Amino acid sequence: MSAPSEIPVIVSATLNLSRQRGFISATRHETGRLLATLAASREGTLAELGTGTGVGSAWLSSGAPKTARIVSAELDPSLAEDVQKIFADVDNVEIISGDWSTLEQYAPFSLLFVDVREVMESIDVIAGLLEPGGIAVLDDFVPSPFWPPIVDGSVDSVREQWLTDERFAAVEMLIDPDASLLIATRR
């Protein structure tokens, strides 16, 4: 894919934390650039469910207007503290130590990045967290050339549900030959 090789400084800091913590995967640059692009069009509150080392939040922050607020929750208190240090000087980003459901108090969201498969299964909950016109970006799918989508010999019911739910206009995007994501806009 054609894209500048440089990445924002805040993203580099979160990737360094990923390496230090032994994470073998993080938000791909292609996904990150998409998040930054979408965030640039948003106002209000943006969120990431599944902070990890903060790579997704860093990409959101790199694109979002300074007037937008970004919140993210990390279950591991020690990891949340490390990510909080990275964002200490970023006024519009708040990293919370806690379960993803602690973010419900900040809803509705204009953009929601979901990187936790179990949460993706809760389409009704996520729909309730989004404002009308709000966008959900769901990461870490394996591309499927079939309909319904088949992965490892079984129907991917989570993907099927998101792509057919009438509350959303949704599309699957190929990010890499072995990775895709879903973008769903709340009607």
Q: Would you write up a description of this structure?
A:
The two termini are 31 Å apart. The radius of gyration is 16 Å and the shape is globular. The strands form two sheets. A seven-stranded mixed β-sheet has the order 3-2-1-4-5-9-8, sandwiched between helices. The chain contains seven helices and nine strands, in the order ααβαβαββααβββαββ. By secondary structure, it is an alpha/beta fold. It has one domain: Rossmann fold. Helix 1 packs antiparallel against helix 3 and helix 2 crosses helix 3. The longest helix is centred in the first third of the chain and has 13 residues.
Helices and strands, with pairings:
Elements: H1 9-21, H2 29-39, E1 45-49, H3 55-63, E2 69-74, H4 77-86, E3 93-97, E4 109-114, H5 117-120, H6 123-129, E5 130-141, E6 150-151, E7 154-155, H7 157-164, E8 168-176, E9 179-186
In brief, what are we looking at here?
By secondary structure, the chain is an alpha/beta fold. The protein has helices at residues 9-21, 29-39, 55-63, 77-86, 117-120, 123-129, 157-164; strands at 45-49, 69-74, 93-97, 109-114, 130-141, 150-151, 154-155, 168-176, 179-186. It has a seven-stranded mixed beta sheet with strand order 3-2-1-4-5-9-8, with helices on both faces.
Largest sheet: 7 strands, mixed
Order of helices and strands: HHEHEHEEHHEEEHEE
Strand order of the largest sheet: 3-2-1-4-5-9-8
Beta-strand segment tally: 9
Descriptive tags:
187 residues; 33% helix; two-stranded antiparallel sheet; Rossmann fold; seven-stranded mixed beta sheet
